[in-house]
Write a structure and sequence with these properties.
The complex is a heterodimer of chains A (about 120) and B (about 110). Chain A is an all-beta fold and about 120 residues long. Chain A contains no helices and 12 strands. In chain B, the strands form 2 sheets. In chain B, strands 2, 4, 5, 6, 9, 10 and 11 form a 7-stranded mixed sheet that branches. In chain B, strands 1-3-8-7 form a 4-stranded antiparallel sheet, with no helix packed on it.
Chain lengths: ~120, ~110
Amino acid sequence: AQTVTQSQPEMSVQEAETVTLSCTYDTSENNYYLFWYKQPPSRQMILVIRQEAYKQQNATENRFSVNFQKAAKSFSLKISDSQLGDTAMYFCAFMTAGTASKLTFGTGTRLQVTL
Amino acid sequence: DTGVSQDPRHKITKRGQNVTFRCDPISEHNRLYWYRQTLGQGPEFLTYFQNEAQLEKSRLLSDRFSAERPKGSFSTLEIQRTEQGDSAMYLCASSEQGANEKLFFGSGTQLSVL
């Protein structure tokens, strides 16, 4: 079974600064996907960024980028130029390829962006 | 495309009552998922459908839980004889089968069992 660990329950960052959220995972699979989802107070889970394990290049989406270290089973999210609207719970998630998008989530990191 | 919608947004019920939630996926998505999220935890997979077929159920889905997707469009999740431990947010998601499939989530139904 896969496990996803997020060791930072809460983080705080000032507006316009950069913050990094940590995630580690455990799996014996070789072909998988990793995700970061954002859950604002509206409760809807929103996909932030997605990484295929077979790709060495780290994924980027505008102000969001990841540091994917496959050997270390580490998948951190970097948010640059933080904005107040980035305040939310952030969940790291794992999916084995070919398992019909069934996700295993971590326990989340609550990010507060302050003025 | 109006996204994934779930109804109701909140449900309060007494222990022992039956409840039913509805999920309307994005129209062209043939896969539909139910997840449960308790306070302080990430969502946990419950079950998923491809079209009208229920292809997988988690061990979390006890005999009191039943999900249907009769015409391959909307889905319902029913909980019979609710228990206080059923209190959680129930999230629905949908995806389009394919190489770049991504899950799109609804805003969930928050269930409180008194």
